[in-house]
Amino acid sequence: xxxxxxxxxxxxxxxxxxxxxxxxxxxxxxxxxIYTLVEDGVVPRRVRxxxxxxxxxxxxxxxxxxxxSAGLVSVGTDHHVRLTDLGLRHAVVVARRHRLxxxxxxxxxxxxxxxxxxxxxxxxxxxxxxxxxxxxATLDDPRRSPWGNPVPGLDLLGLAPAEPVSAVPLxxxxxxxxxxxxxxxxxxxxxxxxxxxMDRLISAxxxxxxxxxxxxxxxxxxxxxxDVVDLPRNRGHVxxxxxxxxxxxxxxxxxx
Length: 256
What we know:
single chain; Arc Repressor Mutant, subunit A; SH3 type barrels; 256 residues; 6-stranded antiparallel β-sheet; alpha+beta; two-stranded antiparallel sheet; 8 helices; 8 strands
């Protein structure tokens, strides 16, 4: 789901104004991971965080404990790791930096979008608010990343906020046998992290703005653009399709 409020994202607590430990790129990476898990509709638990970051269970447990002590997350009896209000504020800043950096790298520097994503994973830890404001002022419309993801927290920079994405993830299109035609609205961050998957999607023309036909199968989703890509059901959250929007037969994103 798009993260546009604290509902289902935070634990509802009123946190302190600043964390009790210095923020580091490693801690910010955890907040980013929890944030993007929620965007994908995946319940953030330590095992899911471990899978996303490729870190061992004990390392994740120790880092989550540090985040808890710092007032950035809480862990429920159901092992659900929730951002506190303070944690969400920090996560929003990291996500905003990442997606503005992607836009700058692609539109101003001319970098291919898939390379810009990897580079932005570094930029998201070092950009200042002044740089963010300059990027936003230079862009025509800074409310979406090159891959269609909303840029959060723009209102904190005095800009018009991005509207939540209303497009449907593949997992919610319907039961097996359903066939839907629509426009690709976004590719989730977890999909962008999967280089082989991105190569397949790009080769098939399955990028934001492209018209696709999706057939829901029992164990996978058959997505047809210029070619067919089969996505297993457990990856059905990486692609969202707007079933009501007309669009071009192929998106205009620069990917090579």
